[in-house]
Every structure is written in structure tokens, then in C-alpha cells.
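Page 47, continued from p. 46.
Same chain as before, 260 aa.
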Amino acid sequence: MKQLVVASEYGEPSNHVGVICQRLCDIKKDVCLLLITKNLPDCSKIIVVADSLSIPYQIHCTITGLGGTVLEPQVPAPNLMVEESIKVIEKYKIDPKAITVRIDPIVPEFLDLQTIEASHTLKAFAGIGVKDCRISIVDYYPHVRERFDKLGIKHPDRFQVGIPLKNLIIDRMFHLTSMYNMKLHLCAEYLGPNLEGSIYPGVDTEGCASAASWKRLGITDLKPATRKQREECTCNLSKQDLLAGLSKGCKGGCVYCYWR
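Result:
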């Protein structure tokens, strides 16, 4: 039985490349890798090691469009990250089916900026054959609201945005992904009745490590999920984090981060 190993839950993988590579070498076989990163270029060595060990992988390349702004002060600018990420994909001949572009999270207060940047990002990735886009909408944890307050950014005084605004965001992203012939996946977001079926065909709430994701990695003997990380999350948590044991958090300084 293959084990799914992930790199992202405890920190940004590009900050822990050496640890991840060493742990992959220690495991060596019978694993599949799910890599979720905001800095794919700096994760190149992980790809090299996975290839050398014949470890199948899926890569979620997160480009929110907010890199370099007050919300993501230590994350590279989106145009640079798009260009450099595509260079990595082409250099290492990564199958486009192994790549998912993530606009995650979407911050409603910056929706117009993120829409513009998402259009550029999706067009570029679609141009090399990538077909999958995944989005989520920011969760306003109490400490996140405090950070927004310090920056003078208005926000809802609750954990999530209301359904009308959520549906507006999904609608906008659906039309963007359709424009570039990409499939839209929702991460821990409720797909309301008015968004189902023929209105937005193909949109799903597949978890990052859901059964469908595991099958793409060659795992067919998956046990049903028994718990959730958060409400509406559909991830199967029978996974092992390669960064387990490290202090949670990263150096990105993202204001919306769920880590304190």
C-alpha cells in the first residue's frame, strides 16, 4: 500500500527543502508526494529527488496575485513567480497533469487585483497544458481580523464571508477558468444549489488529498476519511506530513495565515 506524503501543513516547503529531500530519501519507496508551495522554483531540488527515487507527485503551485503586497510581504511578485515556475515545469519536463494552479486564498477586499493577476496566471499555465485550478476564500480567524485591523483593512466581523459574496467569487473564477479551458476546484468551500449542475458544469469540491487526487497518484486502496481539518473540507487525512515535528509556520509573513 502506498502512503501519501505531503509538504505544506507545517510550513512553506521552499524553506525546508533539505529536510523534505532527506525524509524522501529515508522513505525511498511506496510513497506518493503532494507538494503545495508558493515558491516552486526554490523547490526544484525536491522534484529532482522525487524523480531520482521514482516517487510520483502532484504539485499545487500557489500564486494568489498578492505576492509583494502588504498581505504577502515576503512572497515573490506574481509575474516573476509565474515565469520562473513555468521554467521549472519545462526544464524538468513535469507532466502538466501533475500541476494544479492555486489562487488560494482569495481575499475579497483585494478581489479586483486578484482577478486581474489570476487572468494572467491562468493564461500562462494554460499555455503549457495545465488544466486544473483550485481556489479557496480567506477564513477570518480572530487573529487574522486583528492583523487586518492593524493595517486598516476593512473585513467582515465573522469567520467567513456571506454566501452572496462567496457565490460572486466562485462565479468570477468559473468564468476565468472556462475562458482558458481549465477545470475549477473549490477547496473547503460549499457549492450551493444555485451553482450545481448545468449552471457551472464540472466545478467540484474535491479535497487536496481526496480520493480522486490519490487515484491520480496511483493509490487505489484508500480508506474513507474519518475526520476533517475544518468545516466543508473534503481532504482524506490518511496522509503523512514530511515536515511533522517542525515548529508550525513559515517566513512568508502572510497577514491572512491561519498560523498565529
